Amino acid sequence: MSSIVLFGPPGAGKGTQAERITEKTGFPQVSTGDMLRAAVKAGTETGLLAKSFMEAGQLVPDEVIIDLIQQRITHPDAAHGVMFDGFPRTIPQAEALATITEVSHVIAIEVPDERIVDRICGRYSCAGCGNVYHDTFNPAPEGGCECGKWEEKRRADDNADTVMSRLAAYHEQTSPLAGWYEREGIFHRINGDRPIDAITEDILTALN
Ligand code: AP5
User: Fold this and answer.
1) 52 is in which domain, residue-wise?
2) 35 CB less than 6 Å from ligand 1?
3) Residue 102 is part of a domain; what is its CATH number?
4) How far apart are CA 177 and CA 149, in angstroms?
5) What is the pTM of this model?
6) How many domains does the chain have?
7) Rounded to the nearest whole angstrom, what is the distance from the C-alpha of residue 13 to the centroid of ligand 1?
8) pLDDT one-digit tens code per residue, 51-78
């Protein structure tokens, strides 16, 4: 089993690109953010624990995240590898991942901090199918997306206050991982401040 990691600050476009790359590689997207939001919605023990961290824009404790991942990779669809979106985010998470799967590529989507607030505050998605859109940069089709179950949804943590805490957590706890993966020679920097299609093309080139 060999896996891919999509790495980058909040709002960099990890989820947007993961959806497209999954179609091309067949690797399922494993988003710790999506798993945590599902746990919060279901009111599970994990969800109750994670909720206050997420609302404050802080990282959820490593042991909770590692446990979620250990359970997720036992699903049959993960047998040949997965695409991690938003995991790992700390050195202990990267150490745990190394015991679970070989990582073949870490794709770092780089976007300057000053672009991130606009990206996050304009984001919405379809509750029916999960497609992610943006008020200005990537609007849904007129009348909603084409899944037939259109329902606009905005995330509770997508606001200007929380985004500053999320960016601080990224710089303090997550960005040191770049050095860790650079030393392993599997770290690919992609300029994420460009049109969505151009970024997808560069990611696919890096994966070849
Ligand atoms: P998570 O859900 O992972 O959020 P995040 O990392 O903050 O990333 P986002 O989902 O906000 O952004 P994205 O990079 O996917 O961007 P997107 O494609 O949507 O985590 C949420 C919380 O859960 C964390 O704060 C933490 O509390 C907890 N958590 C999760 N994982 C954890 C872990 N491993 N350890 C500890 N805690 C964890 O794009 C954003 C917007 O921009 C969209 O509107 C999109 O349409 C638009 N857009 C995308 N690309 C472009 C482009 N090229 N140009 C213009 N607009 C674009």
Assistant:
1) 2-112+187-207
2) no
3) 3.40.50.300
4) 39
5) 0.96
6) 1
7) 7
8) 999 999 999 999 999 999 999 999 999 9
